[in-house]
Design goal:
elongated; four-stranded antiparallel β-sheet; alpha/beta; single chain; 63% helix; six-stranded mixed β-sheet; 604 residues
Length: 604
């Protein structure tokens, strides 16, 4: 299977400022929740101070309460240590609750932002991007950031506070032992940064591989993919291809988890050995005539030093995790930074009453507006479709028929000229007006994995049952739905595969009828119907078209003979125009297409 990568170029300022800018951007995601994070910070600081107090209580127990047999003081100090553990645990639960809630809200914001950005992309983006790649960005990439987003901020604040408070307390106990304890800390920081950079590179490759595997699953395990694979005898080949993708992911997962593992293990060993070093240093100092360190002070210091071990290692690991997560954030930001070419004006025009007058004025269209090396798909199109009239567009495959129809609802934007609705450029209309004005029934029918009624009500969520039934009757599909065991509650299946092509097409027509738009675009809407069903649906379409503007993209010319105007496209230009009779009398391209259709129908 061929892979298609997204052609995306980062904004110049992103390239210039690099990682610092990205970190600032990540931090900005937490800005709406700064009050909650401030509360987390207070809880963390309080918990750290309480934790640091415990070794001092221990020192008093060993140096004062026990040697002097002061039972009351011993009890009080012991209760203080217990209270410290209780308070620390309660604060820990509260900060976890708040930080997890904030993290999940940030992830929700990211998912929603990416989904919203993708909803605003033009059709061209989705024709160039694999569905599995899009799903992977939303599911795997954002999901992979969960641990970082939900716990990193709290962990960072908690560990920084703990390390700072612990070092201050260690200095207060004995500054000389503190220096011995911290000698290797800069080396540990340098090692963790190297490990982080290494894991970031691997994480980028891993997420791309996960996206590729998700795309393979989406394509090959869909209903259409299964049918194609089995009928072509490629099931074993597809399984082998998936196994290769999975094998590559296994290798990357192992490398990701093992990257720098030995170096981090060395840090853990050294940190765990530090108490022995402290005891040894204190003993040597005493033998050399240095200052005497009390047992309580030494035990308290080692306790603090051991307490320093956990947050220090956690900080180093957090740094590694942040480096790894930067790769995931970068992939998400790539989607958020994708240029949106279908946008709404700052002050769009809203039409309360829509007549349905459509005009194409000098329309030109290229899929890449900046690329003038190739001939445009549409060039110099001038058409007028008065409100309530019908226009049929015919021509050979690749003439630009469907592209022309896509310009009215702004699935694409013109690259030259303009398309107007009731005299207003469609690019100046607000999205709601355009959605209310134009209904589209395309050649490729899409149905959700939901009931028939839910699929129809997608066009009009508040539609009554009678309105749904009326739309289905108009599309000649009500009797078939009513004959099903579950009627309108029948689940259509993945992409509607429980229905035939003609039945799906009629459901799509019923869905558009229910919306009742003043402008109706039929992009070869009857192409999947047999002759008998086509005639029935065409009667319904003709009746509905009486009071609305209809733009029909036709493959079968028998469906457009009654159109008020027929246009023949050839090479993206208008080659002929007129009524059916006028074009037959002209004996040009249209007449040739009619003769071809007649011969095909005769053979059938």
């Amino acid at each position: 299977m061929q892979r298609h990568e997204i052609n995306w170029t980062p904004p110049p300022d992103a390239v210039a400022s690099g990682q610092p800018r990205q970190i600032r951007r990540i931090l900005s995601l937490f800005r709406p929740y700064r009050a909650r994070l401030a509360l987390v910070g207070l809880l963390v600081c309080a918990a750290s101070l309480v934790t640091v107090a415990t070794p001092f209580l221990l020192r008093e127990i060993l140096d004062v309460a026990i040697p002097e047999r002061r039972t009351g003081l011993l009890t009080l100090l012991a209760l203080g240590m217990i209270a410290s553990a209780v308070v620390t645990s309660v604060f820990g639960v509260l900060q976890t609750l708040i930080s997890t809630t904030v993290g999940q809200r940030v992830m929700h914001d990211l998912r929603t932002a990416v989904y919203g950005r993708l909803q605003s992309m033009s059709l061209a983006f989705f024709t160039k991007t694999r569905t599995g790649e899009v799903q992977s960005r939303i599911a795997n990439d954002i999901g992979g950031m969960q641990a970082t987003v939900t716990s990193t901020a709290t962990s960072l604040v908690s560990n920084v506070t703990s390390v700072t408070a612990t070092i201050v307390a260690m200095v207060a106990l004995d500054w000389r032992l503190t220096i011995v304890s911290l000698l290797l800390l800069p080396v540990f920081v340098w090692i963790s940064r190297r490990v982080g950079r290494e894991r970031k590179k691997i994480a980028t490759r891993r997420q791309k591989q996960m996206a590729a595997m998700a795309a393979t699953v989406t394509e090959s395990l869909s209903v259409s993919g299964i049918v194609l694979g089995r009928t072509m005898g490629r099931a074993d080949s597809l399984t082998a291809s998936f196994a290769d993708e999975s094998e590559q992911l296994v290798d990357l997962e192992v490398r990701s988890n093992m990257a720098g593992r030995w170096r981090m293990a060395v840090i853990s060993i050294v940190m765990a050995a530090m108490p022995a070093v402290i005891y040894w240093a204190a003993g040597i100092a005493l033998q050399l005539g240095g200052p005497t360190i009390s047992i309580g002070t030494l035990v308290a210091f080692v306790s603090l030093q051991q307490g320093l071990f956990r947050p220090t290692v956690s900080l180093l690991q957090t740094g590694v995790q942040i480096q790894t997560s930067l790769a995931l954030f970068q992939r998400i930001f790539e989607y958020l930074d994708l240029p949106v070419d279908i946008t709404e004006r700052d002050n769009p025009v809203r039409l309360d009453t829509i007549k349905g007058d459509i005009r194409f004025e000098g329309v030109e269209f290229r899929y890449d507006a900046a690329d003038e090396r190739h001939r445009p798909i549409l060039d110099g199109i001038d058409l007028t479709v008065p409100a309530g009239s019908s226009l049929a567009v015919v021509g050979s495959t690749g003439a630009g028929k469907s592209t022309l129809s896509h310009l009215v609802p702004r699935l694409y934007d013109v690259t030259g000229g303009r398309v107007t609705l009731d005299g207003v450029d469609v690019r100046d209309l607000d999205f709601d007006t355009l959605a209310r004005a134009v209904g589209v029934v395309s050649q490729e029918t899409y149905l959700f994995h939901a009931s028939v009624a839910e699929n129809l009500r997608f066009a009009k969520p508040d539609a009554t049952d009678e309105e749904v039934y009326a739309a289905a009757r108009a599309a000649q599909i009500h009797d078939h739905i009513a004959s099903l065991p579950d009627g309108y509650d029948t689940v259509v299946g993945e992409r509607g595969h429980r229905f035939s092509g003609g039945e799906k097409q009629r459901l799509a027509i019923a869905r558009t009828i229910l919306r009742d738009p003043p402008v109706l675009i039929l992009d070869e809407a009857t192409s999947a119907l047999d002759n008998r069903t086509e005639r029935a649906v065409q009667e319904a379409i003709d009746a509905l078209s009486a009071d609305r503007t209809t733009l029909t993209i036709a493959h079968r010319l028998s469906t457009v003979r009654g159109a008020d105007q027929i246009v023949v496209l050839d090479g993206g230009r208008v080659a002929e125009r007129g009524t059916h009779e006028e074009l037959l009398a002209l004996d040009g391209r249209y007449a040739a297409l009619v003769r071809r259709d007649t011969q095909v129908e005769a053979v059938v």
